[in-house]
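Worked Example 4.2. Consider the chain below.
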Amino acid sequence: MPKVIAAFGEVMMRLQVPGYASLAQESSLNYSFSGTGVNIASALGRLGHAGYLVSTLPDNPLGDAAIAYLRKLGIDTSFISRGGKYVGMYFLENGFGVRPGRVTYTDRLGSSFNTADPAMYDFSAIARSIDVIHFCGITLSMNENVRGQMKALAREVKANGGTVVFDCNYRPSLWGADGYAFAKPHYEEMLSLADIVFMNEKDALYILGMETKREDRAEQLGELIPKVAETYGISALSGTHRHINGDNTHSLKGYLYKDGAFHFSRTLTFSVYDRIGAGDAYASGVIHGLLQGYDPVQTVDFAAAAAMLAHTVPGDTPTAGELDILRAMGDHRSDVER
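Applying the procedure from the previous section yields the following structure tokens:
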């Protein structure tokens, strides 16, 4: 049964260096609009749900261009307010071989989204209109104004019987020198409001300060994730383990912890065209599987296949539909479809 799903987050302009050149080498850039909320709303729209974005964009030609781009992605923009002057931007350089990809942000704190007055949103009306709301740890890192808006909207959705999804997505560069200590109480509050959470053992260790004597990542995951679920009353937790191989392929394995048991996807190995946004594709796959009543193993296999497909296309935003993902689950070695 399709659901009405909204994502709360910033719309950013992505400025990408063509090919594998560096910023210093190139004189032209390709631009598009993206962000975790954009990716989630679009991906779930492609999977048959109604995808909305809750955000703020400037009321100028740049904001108009962003709105047009979001509509092209199938996102309903009726929850987007207009105000402020700026869109956050980031510059992307593609990695190759031993040289990693690199993202450089501009002053995103001055964007329309991050400076929006809470009065620009009617959170009560939004909460009454949706079934699910998605939040991201990147948004949580921005400022007290945005953190307050996140928590207020999450509470409204909970009060209306909706489902709250929270992706930890901790970025050290966004939280400052005392990042873990500063972030912990905000993460704990969001976890206490969430029904579905995306995280792994590193989040439990470093953000939440949980302890384990185990050194193996899989064993740490097995010990810590059930503690997180019990401590914060979370119904489902999910995440991935990634390994970058010597031949530049990536291997990905997903997990889903639900009803007191772990379920794991097959390990998928694939070549990478563009990595950014693949985590959002995985999260969308898990959300879709849980909402549609897939069994846990099918859900995590579906999500892993969605993430794999997202690595094969340029841009942040996943493009695969449900049939594409189901086909990839059967056999991810492909020839030309005729």
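Residues 52 and 76 are 5 Å apart (CA to CA). Residues 144-159 form the longest helix (16 residues). Compare this with Example 4.1 before moving on.
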